[in-house]
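debug: dumping io for the single-chain case to check the tokenizer round-trip. Nothing else runs in this session.
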Amino acid sequence: MDLCKIQMERLIIDHAKYRFDRFGYKKTTMDEISKDCRISKKTIYVYFKDKEHLFHSLLWYESHKAKNYILAKTQESDDPVEQLKILIKTTEEYFNQNCFLIRLLNDEQALYPIAFQRKYRQEVEEALVPLIVEILTQGKKNGKIRDIDVSSVAYAGLKMFQCYMQTRYLEQETKNLGCSVTVLIDLLMQGLLRNESISM
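debug: decoded output
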């Protein structure tokens, strides 16, 4: 892909993210985004056919940026148990720093269409589930993780983590913090590891 095209798409997506995060999908207009970018609306339509296409491109970009960051962190260790712990901690840190993604999932003010929330969940699952499956599979091979259905466990574990993050976000809003990510890691490790492999 042409470098100038990539740079222009990134410029538009970055400014669109700010608008969508602050005002929601429904109240954000392409006119506002074009003014923020200091380009014409016609130029935006060269790269994105409409606002929905732009928003979905933003979701794809954010989910893959998260995947690449988390993947790089997990590769700092060769041990699948440590990789799981790193994955959970890194994912929490990443999403805490990118609250737009959590706000999109919670969306108490109905700023985003429900279909878009589902699309984002799908993007996250497609980005992270294969990574979790790979780690669990390696853990089974070296005998540290019990004999489990890695695909089902990866999906269930991700859903559990999503619930944890959404609840955590609400607790931060009300300053009523509950359990830390360490508790979640301990819970998951107790369920996944063989007894001789459990060491927190």
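debug: round-trip ok. The domain at 1-48 is CATH 1.10.10.60 (Arc Repressor Mutant, subunit A).
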